[in-house]
Amino acid sequence: MRLSGRRVLVVGSGQAAAAKQRLLEAAGARVDLVAQVGPLHGYALVFGTSGDDACDRTVSEAARAAGIPVNVVDRPELSDFIMPAVVDRGEVVIGISTGGGSPILAQRIRALIEDALPNGIDRLAAFARRFRSAVQTRVADNATRRRFWERFFDGEGADLVMAGEDYRAARKIIRDLNAADATRSGEGSLTVIELVSNNSDDLTLGALRALRKADVIAHDADVAAEILDYARRDARRVDLDAMLPQGARVVVLRSMFTAKRAGAAQ
């Protein structure tokens, strides 16, 4: 949520209130810190940080009555939105949430992600922002544009940016944009994955890579949601007997474990 220049109310005191104030001011908000809730006109968000049940309930009820989103620390039932643990690398920001169930677990996950992210990842995001309009102008089709960026992030251009060679990376992406194949959608592909179980831990690395790149997922009804969730959210999901589109990256998921169970029953 964009908060730059907008008023936000924090009700409470102590470390929890101070932490919220720092976070909100870093986002550019104009923060009012008070001990008790008062008139709420003009506020974009309201936070309850007192830790006192009666006070926090009053804050929540007042904000909801005024139609203003409210967050009460460690009280998801009194909140309209959550505050995730955040990994902030400049242009790259990652939020981790447990739905308010375990903030400590979210912090542990944040530490794991911070350790995994390479230094300079924010440079890559900033570079992509610089050339986003140029790529959109040159490559109008969404699917083709996705493949263009995939080639860039997987190739020499991204390596140059990460190494601080922005000038060479800029020349590289300009050459790629001017190349004849920049506006070509590329060839489609068909990957058939025979699932031995509905446990996502049994997926091979190759299967995971194929799922994450697929434009279309064709599967039978027995495939578990935890496996389908590895695909992109914008990937189409169709039945196995559906007509498959040309030029798309298609992954077919077949539940072989169902056939084994049926054979065993006979």
From TrEMBL:
Q: Does the keyword Oxidoreductase apply?
A: yes
Annotated ranges, domain Siroheme synthase central: 94-115
Enzyme Commission code: 1.3.1.76
UniProt cross-references to Pfam families, sorted A to Z: CysG_dimeriser (PF10414), NAD_binding_7 (PF13241), Sirohm_synth_M (PF14824)
Q: Which reaction does it catalyse?
A: precorrin-2 + NAD(+) = sirohydrochlorin + NADH + 2 H(+)
What pathway, per the record?
Porphyrin-containing compound metabolism; siroheme biosynthesis; sirohydrochlorin from precorrin-2: step 1/1
Look up the domain of life of the source.
Answer: Bacteria
Keywords for this protein: NAD, Oxidoreductase, Porphyrin biosynthesis
Identify the InterPro entries for this entry: 4pyrrol_Methylase_sf, 4pyrrole_Mease_sub1, Met8-like, NAD(P)-bd_dom_sf, Sirohaem_synt_dimer_dom_sf, Sirohaem_synthase_central, Sirohaem_synthase_dimer_dom, Sirohaem_synthase_N
- Which residue numbers delimit the Sirohaem synthase dimerisation domain? 121-173
Instruction: State the name under which the record lists this protein.
Output: precorrin-2 dehydrogenase
Originating organism: Dongia sedimenti
